[in-house]
Amino acid sequence: MPVHAVLVPLAPAGLLRRALRHPSLVLGALLSLLLVAAAGLSWVWTPWSPYDMDLAQKLQPPTALHWLGTDAFGRDVASLLLVGARSSLLVGVVAVGIGLSLGTALGLLASARRGGVEAWIMRLADFSLAFPAILSAIMMTAVFGAGLANAILAIALFNVPTFVRVTRASANAVHAREYILAARACGQGPWRITLDHVLPNILPTLIVQATIQFALAILAEAALSYLGLGTQPPQPSCGRMLNDAQTLMFQAPLLAVWPGLAIALAVLGLNLLGDGLRDLLDPRLSRPR
Which residue from 2, 54, 71, 223 has the fewest beta carbons nearer than 10 Å? Predict the structure, then answer.
């Protein structure tokens, strides 16, 4: 009879009760849902068109017509933030998705095969970490030109070695457990063990790491757009809004406050979500509340 790891899943009601006892998880989930809701809402409705300029209304303070004011081109700031959330969400989903897929596969391969395969994969991951996302984007921009696609690819490549290291370390810890030895004694091969036992047991760790990398991807996209290497005009982006606002700090300081606050809340929400998920999915790390 095949030997499987004993996992006791919580009932949905019990899981919800535990989740509600984690203030960081609740707050992080609310802030993350706010980001998703803003991006989704922008596809069907915005207060004004984020692409139409009205120089007669430029640099207006917050009013009933323009809730957060207007920028130097007369565009509605609230509409720019709503549409800019799309870029942040797109970069996070695609870049983290690529990094998670490739990184997990390579990390599991390194843990299952060991020896020379593991050494080569880990040395390649260490080499990749020497090139941060922004530096990689600058190099790619010099070759292929500035654009959101190149920024996403640079951030994704930076995520891969992170997931490789996390996956390999977590998988090695699982491989040392008694039920893995029992599975080997029953004749299961390394790939069957990896898929049936190792991957399900490290999945919570990967989920938590994905939320953290999502927050870092949003920060990286904002930094690249601020430098002119990410989202290109006329597509709105919080990073580009900060770049445009830096020359108007004394005339209209709120132009820098709104996108900066949006980035801070998005990153804070994802980090709180990751911290809460860590406690929720791994009871050993739970702290008294």
Answer: 2
Q: Which tokens hold the place of 277?
A: 């998920």
- Domain-embedded: residue 28: no
Label residue 273 exposed, middle or buried (CB < 10 Å: 0-12, 13-18, 19+): buried
- Indicate the helix (H) or strand (E) that contains 201: helix 199-226
Please report whether residue 151 resides in a domain: yes
Beta bridge partners of 76: 70
Write the single-letter amino acid at 13.
A
- Give the DSSP H or E segment for 106: helix 77-113
* Whether residue 89 has pLDDT greater than 60: yes
pLDDT per position as a tens digit, 140-184 = 877 888 889 988 998 998 899 999 999 999 999 998 888 888 888
Query: Looking at residue 208, which CATH number applies to its domain?
Result: 1.10.3720.10
In a domain, 249, yes or no: yes
Establish if 2 belongs to a structural domain: no
pTM of the model: 0.89
Which residue range forms the structural domain that includes residue 241?
Answer: 64-285
- Share the mean pLDDT of the chain: 88
Which residue has better confidence, 219 or 288? 219
